Amino acid sequence: MATPGSEAELAEFVRGARAPLRIVGGGTRLVGDAGEVLSLSALGGVELYEPGALTLVAAAGTPLAEIEALLARESQQLAFEPMDHRGLLGTTGEPTVGGAVAANVSGPRRVQAGSCRDFLLGVRYVDGMGRVIRNGGRVMKNVTGYDLARLMAGSWGTLGVLSEVALKVLPRAETEMTLSVGDVDAHGAVRAMSAALGSPFGVSGAAFDPGHAGGPAALIRIEGLEASLGYRAGRLEDLLGEFGAIARIGSEASAALWRAVRDVAAFHGLPGDVWRLSIKPSEAPAIAARLGAGRLLLDWGGGLIWALVAEGTDLRARAGSFGGHATLVRGSAETRARLGMFQPEPAPLAAITRGLRARFDPRGLFNPGLMRAPAGA
């Protein structure tokens, strides 16, 4: 395993590489199974933090916990609420900011604030020829032509090796509350979540957990000043009363609840494969009914479905045709080889993807085969 300690060492290593590389950050997620491991774990440290400018720059291997602790001292946060995969995948290590950017990891607040990609100001990365590339800047108004920074977000290390990321941060809410709408099925939950998200009351999370303690419930989170929370909660209760019985969950319990939603804690320690479907919220009930999953969790107002199914299940075949994509998040090596981790791309998009990889990584070094089509596709 190679563990460069600086950007210069990273670039030198890539220039000298003659075989495929498997790029990992803190080692918390399953990233391919081919090539020598290239770890970014030694490339850490916050290089710039300006609370007044809401700007943070950090080396890619910096643990998210370190960044979140630093921001908390200034009552700020990473608003995209990155997930911790360790409980779901049974892994160890430390989630890193580079790993979050590389996979565009975004939690429940995405439904209001946006994804990790939306907070990315700029990046530095090493391309497949060992060149250090800088794109973007440290302010939102920076204009540099091609937006390579956002292209890198969600590329899973197949276009380049991130060495530094610049992010916009936001103030942390003074407090929060969750409204639990009970006695609802998936159809009722999506209707309730859509009504809440379409309201002017600042909903920052909307999820449906059929296995919620006390019975299936739609969960609606609001955050902000203590003085405004009671008023907003009351107005939402008036709006949502037709969908089911409503209970209020206070700040501390609400925070724990949304950490569990963020990390899909309902599936921790349970056998089976885990899939993540990104869809149109209006399609969620019909698709959920087709999945035959052992357990479901709906996030983003129904736009995200987490499904726990028997090992080896081809959930894409069960879901049928839909406007979105299904990702195999947890499964055996055999299942990943047979079904592929990522949704197969339509031919025109696949051609564009191949062209990008050929330009960014002409030697085919980075995470080879990670986004390949399933066997037999």
Highlighted features:
globular, Uridine Diphospho-n-acetylenolpyruvylglucosamine Reductase, domain 3, 17 strands, alpha+beta, 13 helices, 377 residues
Describe what this molecule looks like in 3D.
- The protein has about 375 residues and is of the alpha+beta class.
- It has three domains: about 5-170, Uridine Diphospho-n-acetylenolpyruvylglucosamine Reductase, domain 3 (2-Layer Sandwich), CATH 3.30.465.10; about 175-260, Alpha-Beta Plaits (2-Layer Sandwich), CATH 3.30.70; about 265-340.
- The protein has 13 helices and 17 strands.
- Strand 3 and strand 4 (about 55-60) form a beta hairpin.
- The mean pLDDT is about 95.
Write a brief structural summary:
The chain has 377 residues and is an alpha+beta fold. The protein has helices spanning 7-16, 64-72, 86-89, 97-102, 110-113, 148-152, 186-197, 226-240, 251-262, 284-291, 315-319, 333-339, 347-360, and strands at residues 21-24, 36-39, 46-50, 55-59, 76-77, 120-126, 132-136, 161-168, 170-171, 175-182, 203-209, 217-224, 246-249, 273-278, 295-299, 304-309, 325-330.
